[in-house]
Amino acid sequence: MDIRRLALAGVVLLVAGGALILLLGRKDDAAAPGDRHQVAADHPPPSKGDVTEFLDDYNDAYRELWTGSEGAKWQANVDITEANSKAEVTATQALADYVGSREVIDQLQQLRRAEDLNELEERQLERAWQLAANYPGTAPATVRKLLQFEAAQNAMLYSHRFVLTLPGQEPREVTPNELDEILLASRDLRERRAVWECSKTVGPTLKDGLAELQTLRNAVAVKMDFSSFFGLQCADYGMTSAEMMLLMDDLLEGMRPLYEQLHCWVRHELAARYNAPDVPRLIPAHWLPNRWGQEWPGVVDGIDMDGMLRDVSPQWIIEQGERFYMSLGFEALPLTFWGRSDLYELPADANRRKNTHASAWHIDLDQDVRSLMSVRNDFRWFGTVHHELGHIYYYLSYARPEVPPLLRRGANRGFHEAIGTLIELASSQVPYLQEIGMLREDDAPDQVRWLLNEALTGPVVFLPFACGTMTHWEHDFYEEELPRHQWNVRWWQYAAEHQGIAPPSQRGEDYCDPATKTHINDDPAQYYDYAISYVILHQLHRYICEQLLQQDVHAANYYGNAQVGIYLESILSAGGTRDWNRLLYEATGEPLTASAMLDYYEPLMAWLQEQNAGRDVGFQ
Ligand code: X8Z
Ligand code: ZN
Question: What are the residue ranges spanned by the domains of the chain?
Fold first, then answer.
């Protein structure tokens, strides 16, 4: 373990320790409306019976109102209409009215003083407190406006029509999948630039709404004494904004040497591919196969992941995903999953609009699980399907009587993102692909190139976007209340600094490029979840390979292994009933540490250094 890794482990331990202190300290000094101490002093400490009674009632009400809200949200996402948007606001308002009501807040303030609470009770009260902080009934007008603007922003984002004008062609409407497909395949820079610019046309339509959301989200959080909305979201990990940023910067620093090598190699490859006269230091954004440069598939010659799926249907991909989980011992998906999900792409001229970003839903916190996707038969969707099914199997695993509805959630949000991506990693390894016939037995791919492709589509390229551009921008957006005339400039400043990417031309403040990323609008101040998920999933993967399978982390095969299934189920079925630091430690024997992830990609370093010999490697 080198110093950097030790440092990260140290910081993380500190953070984890801090998380625990924060968690335990919550009763006395957590965010609360100002009159809390007054209320507490006037009453004797509540009894255990009071807590049980409150939690029973709360869990029942919460589940019912959640189901109403989630069902209405689902409808508003699969069929974007004004009426569905209105129904979404009404149902979500009902949930907010309850979880953030003055009465619930007062009761929570009392009950959190009760003595002899067990961990399950403490964690439920803590969760209820967090929910109240998200929708404080002490600021009803702000909460109402917030729910309205959130629904409107989502509708605006997904009813946008992308009109593409390729050089020498008539304008035509295209789907996001079509934009992505051209960015993956086209070798014509003029065409690529037209597609990239088309993909950013949705940004300006979202700018005013985003300004409202910035103000409203911060107002809600500050009302509950958090530093900002960003701080409120970090508190879910038991961390402050500053601690989260420290973790992000440590992850970036740990990955930076390898990323710089990879970046250098890629900019030379792409310059040759596009016959560019020079190799630019910052990679032009439209050279890359992803709208935000968050993953770079298709750069390594000789590895054609999409080719493996050319002859299968989108439905086969989802069924194969289910077979993977079933082979580990998980049950078949409920029939209602197939009946109620919305899984396939709509044509650009369809008579309804839907959210085209993949998601998984736990409608009733029980067996009603659904996924919203636009699956095509390509490798990106192959991965996404495994990712979404990870959420679904997590939902199903903790939907059991021992886990109260309030704690039917991941150990933390990063854990929830980690499971499916772990299975995505496992389902992309050669022995499994050979076993199911996606890769011929005699097709022995070059191991370095295979790993190179994994680096380009996994955390080496993703972390600079997730920890760097996204999280730093959202941090500033909320913590500094970044003024709207600095949004785009700050975005591209971070993209240059962390990802080494530049826009094809100056992008002034008439554009709103951050808003083109769905999470900025509808999953706000949480993108670091995905970065943390990569750290966790590599820890789980290393444990599984070394302790359960005795196989190489680069060429393992989970398929059909019940022991792996039992191991995962033990993590999933706990839901949010356990402290995540302890759960991780018990599951892997170590605290949160990037060492498993960095070790996985270590073999690439020497190869890249050799390729880049004589080149000026850094990009700053
Ligand atoms: O949003 C997602 C999932 C849904 S939770 C498809 N992901 C991030 C993204 O697309 O930007 C998965 C990886 C990162
Ligand atoms: Zn996810």
Answer: 3-158+206-225
